Amino acid sequence: MVKGKRTSSATGSREHDNVEPDRDRPSLPSGILARIGSISASLGPAGRRIADFIAQHPQDVIHMSVSDVAERTGASEGSVVGFCKSVGATGFQQLKILLAQDNVRPVQIIHEDLEPQDSVATVIRKIFQSNVQTLHDTGTSLDVKAVERAVALLKAAERIEIYGIGSAAPIAEDAQYRMLRIGLNVKAVVDSHMQAISASLAGPKVATLTISHSGSTHETIEATRLAKESGARTVCISNLGKSPLQAFADVVLFTMARETRFRTEAMTSRLAQLAIIDVLIASLALTDYDRSVDTLRHTFDVLSIKRY
Questions:
Q1: How far apart (Å, rounded) are the C-alpha atoms in residues 154 and 133?
Q2: Are 190 and 211 in contact (CB under 8 A)?
Q3: Phi first, then psi: what are they for 209, rounded to 5°?
Q4: Which of 91-105, 185-199, 219-233, 242-256 has the lowest mean pLDDT?
Q5: Is 276 a domain residue?
Q6: E strands along 200-308, which residues?
Q7: Are residues 170 and 80 in the same domain?
Q8: What is the pTM assigned to this prediction?
Q9: Residue 288 maps to a domain
């Protein structure tokens, strides 16, 4: 299990006890804010702080990470997750979705800019505008020094491992394909068990690239932690904001995707992730220009037999 911030593990355990669901508690109201109000009085101090903060700032919480809420309420990340479960959510990400459902019109769960009466032409325009805006925001906010450090770590490694779960898995596999095209020793690991094994054996000659929009996915956090503890250098791509993943990252490259408001599987974050990976691969290729060009030509010739 991911421990998150180690300094608060003991406190987190005690606070977590204050927000565990009561098995004898009657069924909860359907709306998430109503559920929070119905159990608030029965919680311990940490649980009440979390409940009060979420009830008073529901729109803000939709944009926040579990680490942000923990910091604002003086609780541990474990306490926040425990509170989410006490109100019937599976975790913090689902709590945010439930808050959004309480606070936005249903059509916005499909896409936040849409209206029920929108035509296909309008849907095309709005979604493309949203995706273009995400790429623009990510490009203008991307830390050049962080990219340079990431390129240096990946370049120095004898092997690169790329971790991604769920919607991040195809991004990891695409990154592997394109890094192979320029001659890098790289493998994408998208199975959680394989991630744990591979990361624990990584060692100091390995660099890892973890892709996680929320930065809160248990499997990729655990893989990154194991890689870090084995001596590997760790680069992460995640959306802007604090998250548990960052505790185990040497370098974090931030995307700027708005989808954290209502949904976590939309295309905007993946486009931003792919753009950052493009930047990394192009920069890596330029560090050894002649070799990269020769390798690209060779792999193009090899692939040419696959085409008519």
A1: 29
A2: no
A3: -125, 110
A4: 91-105
A5: yes
A6: 206-211, 233-239, 251-255
A7: no
A8: 0.70
A9: yes
